[in-house]
UniProtKB/TrEMBL annotation:
It comes from the Bacteria. One of its GO terms (molecular function) is holo-[acyl-carrier-protein] synthase activity. This is Uncharacterized protein. InterPro entries: 4-PPantetheinyl_Trfase_dom (IPR008278), 4-PPantetheinyl_Trfase_dom_sf (IPR037143), AASDHPPT_N (IPR055066), P-Pant_transferase_sf (IPR050559). Keywords: Transferase.
Length: 218
């Protein structure tokens, strides 16, 4: 059984500007430039915190100078050139989350339960999933359960939305697509949020809360 470490953090207010700049200096120039293009402070923080979570995760694996180790696939999925390691980052609302594991392929997704017109997503669900969403006591919760599962699978696969979501059936906590079997687990992360993780091997999960408002973290 593989072990996955899941690091998460949240933000409700802007960091002190000096601390934000200190953290930002840990990123390579291209990521600093990308961060500067976000107009909302929330977007700048979620982008920065995702990378800081990855730094923290790899630091605990005694891995430093990580930016030389990150490459991108033809579908723009970031990956580590270190043998065996894989990671994935997601953010929504006030939370950012990063999963990392060794000798495994993984994808993770977090979604805030924002009100949506669910009819807009009908074509992304199977018939059984759509029936379950509509018959549930809380349709929104059931929708986000399936949405995060599907997102975690397409992120683990690496092709993203090139994969047709309406073909992803969930059976006994697994999704099989193009002869690849993914083990999926969804859970209520905190009130109003859903999280799902997909892996190509059975796994256990260790959660780590990180507070970046403490300047001693990184």
């Amino acid at each position: 059984m593989h072990s996955i470490d899941i690091f998460f953090t949240s933000f409700t207010k802007p960091l002190d500007q000096n601390l934000f700049s200190e953290y930002l200096s840990l990123l390579p120039p291209d990521l600093r430039e990308k961060n500067s293009k976000y107009l909302r402070w929330q977007d700048r923080h979620s982008h920065l915190f995702g990378r800081l979570l990855l730094i923290e995760a790899l630091k605990r694996c005694d891995i430093n100078n990580i930016w030389d180790l990150i490459k991108y696939s033809s579908h723009k999925r970031p990956y580590l050139t270190l043998d065996g390691y894989d990671f994935n980052i997601s953010h929504s609302g006030d939370y950012v989350i990063c999963a990392i594991g060794k000798n495994i392929r993984l994808g993770i997704d977090i979604e805030e339960h924002r009100e949506r017109n669910l009819k807009d997503f009908r074509n992304l669900m199977t018939l059984d999933q759509w029936d379950e969403i509509n018959s549930a006591s809380c349709s929104l919760n059931t929708f986000y359960k399936y949405w995060t599962i599907k997102e975690s699978v397409i992120k683990a696969d690496g092709r993203g939305f090139y994969i047709p979501l309406n073909e992803l059936e969930v059976t006994n906590n697994t999704v099989c697509f193009e002869d690849k079997l993914w083990f999926v687990q969804d859970f209520v992360f905190t009130k109003g949020y859903s999280v799902a993780i997909a892996t190509n091997e059975l796994s256990t999960f260790n959660m780590h809360a990180i507070n970046f408002y403490d300047s001693c973290i990184v």
